[in-house]
Amino acid sequence: xxxxxxxxxxxxxxxxxxxxxxxxxxxxxxxxxxxxxxxxxxxxxxxxxxxxxxxxxxxxxxxxxxxxxxxxxxxxxxxxxxxxxxxxxxxxxxxxxxxxxxxxxxxxxxxxxxxxxxxxxxxxxxxxxxxxxxxxxxxxxxxxxxxxxxxxxxxxxxxxxxxxxxxx
Length: 168
Prior knowledge:
Layout: E1 2-4, E2 10-11, E3 27-28, H1 31-39, E4 42-43, E5 58-63, E6 68-70, H2 75-117, H3 122-128, H4 136-163
Antiparallel strand pairs: 1-2, 1-3, 4-5, 5-6
């Protein structure tokens, strides 16, 4: 079942796209939702078409016996809202990408560093001076990976932040 927003006509056929009684094209699929909107401050338009209609909803700001004032939400406002959401999304992505790359890189660096340090044997080093230093090549590799990770994560973060088009 669905109900016409304009005349509250109950329509059993879900394939119908226009109210047979009043010609309205906006429907509610729940009687409580219909009643809520009919009693609320929102006006549901007869037809919602983003290409040809510049108003989606009209909240009534004040209503008196003589006149009522309506605030229009235009397509420009909707496009600004979408742009703001995109800026927020890219800002969050910048932070998450930076942290993800840092975490991944530092995990690899810690593994390689510990692998290099595993060669050190404190007992043998104290007794006869053998196996006192870690594997230098692996430590150097770990430092190089760490530097590459910092540069890569910073670059990825700034790249996403630039997509957010936040004014500086």
